[in-house]
Amino acid sequence: MLELPTDKKFIYKLGIGLLIFSMVLWLIPVITPFFPISLKLKAGIITSVLIIAEIIFWIGALLVGKEAAAKFKSYLNPNTWKKAKRNK
């Protein structure tokens, strides 16, 4: 891997952290329907979290760069999982 100056290393790690955090946020809409709260509140939580997760993802993508963000996103694509199994 390339040696990055200390500031760029921090920004890169922050970007990766934001990408991972945005993926963790996607779990909230999955579990929200099981809480005993009103339907309006559930809809608001799910909508808000999805918007926030998307914003955080793109901020992280800007910090790590286009290539790293595309590589990270490809890890999450089930179609690439099948191709990786065939290549082994």
Provide mean pLDDT, rounded: 84
Instruction: Choose one word for the global shape.
Output: flat
N-C termini distance: 24 Å
User: What is the helix fraction of residues, given as a range?
Assistant: over 70%
What is the radius of gyration computed over CA atoms, rounded to a whole number of angstroms?
17 Å
Order of helices and strands: HHHHH
- How many E-type strands? 0
Helical stretch tally: 5
Question: Major sheet: size, sense and barrel closure?
Answer: none
The share of residues in extended strands comes to under 5%
Structure in words:
It comes from Rummeliibacillus stabekisii. The chain crosses the membrane at residues 12-31, 43-64. InterPro entries: Transp_suffix-like (IPR047961). The protein has 88 residues and is mainly alpha-helical. The protein has one domain (6-87). 81% of the residues lie in helices and 0% in strands. The chain has 5 helices and no strands. The chain is flat, with a radius of gyration of 17 Å. The mean pLDDT is 84.
